[in-house]
Amino acid sequence: MPAWSGDVIMCDAVPPGRHHRGGFQTTLHRFRRTAAVLAATTVLPVLAAAPAQAAGRAYVALGDSYSSGTGTRSYLDDGTSCQRSVYAYPSLIASSKGYALNFRACSGATVADVTNQQLGALGASTAYASMTVGGNDAGFSSVLTECAKPAWASNCNGAIDRAQSIINNQLPARLATLYAAIRERAPKATVVVGGYPRLFNGAGYAPLIASVLTGATVAVTTATTQLAEASAGQLAAQQRPHAEKDRTIRPKQFRAPDLSSPEMQKAAARAGVDLNSRASIDEADRKHAAMQAAAR
Q1: In the CATH scheme, what is the homologous superfamily, with its name and number, of domain 24-258?
Q2: pTM to 2 decimals?
Q3: Whole-angstrom distance, CA of residue 263 vs CA of residue 267
Q4: Residue 202's pLDDT is what?
Q5: Distance, CA of 246 to CA of 81 (rounded, Å)
Q6: Helix %, strand %, coil % of the chain (to 5)
Q7: Mean per-residue pLDDT for 187-216?
């Protein structure tokens, strides 16, 4: 087992989905609190070997949607629902530095998916590897979906507690085993494992991960973006042989609350909320959110 540093990468991202009508500030606060809990408890270490700087060397991108590029709305035509994008940080870093990218990251991937379906890309010649993983094991999207609901219709605290139990009691062993497998397969690689972002704060992964992975600053310029775009066909062709297995991994979805659904109508009736009145919706949201906060 190699000695790994305790440094961490913290990055920011754009929030998924849309908010329900009414109670925006309360919901935004609840989203931030939820994301902060998951980000703080799923931060992962940097696994660093001696850096190798030569251009054209092998770079393997592992992990889930935060590495595949979900949210860019422009994905490789590789026969999967992995939502791999040339605008994701692995593609931008590889294009900027001239690395040979093997883009295995897949939206929805868990630790088991990375272990079973992505580690085969690593080898003795791998110079660089990066990864984000663990959020799907903890149910990140389902927590956000629950906590996006009005407080009078949700159990946000319960969702967070369930996720945190997985993070505290199950993920450490899963990740330790995964890290050991990565190091065994790619003993000479510089490996960076990114933490999850605190949402709503702005910045991206590419400049932060690149500085640790490559030992140099990477600016996402127009030229870099154009090179990344030009690589789409090659990257898609590279991943198509894995499509059958990759299709077993399904992206996790954030679902915005629908106040017209039967579930919401029943919850509103229990809470005495008039769904035709924004004031009633907002007032109940603030009241129940305060009650849930006090229960913590």
Answers
A1: SGNH hydrolase (3.40.50.1110)
A2: 0.80
A3: 6
A4: 59
A5: 8
A6: 50, 10, 45
A7: 85
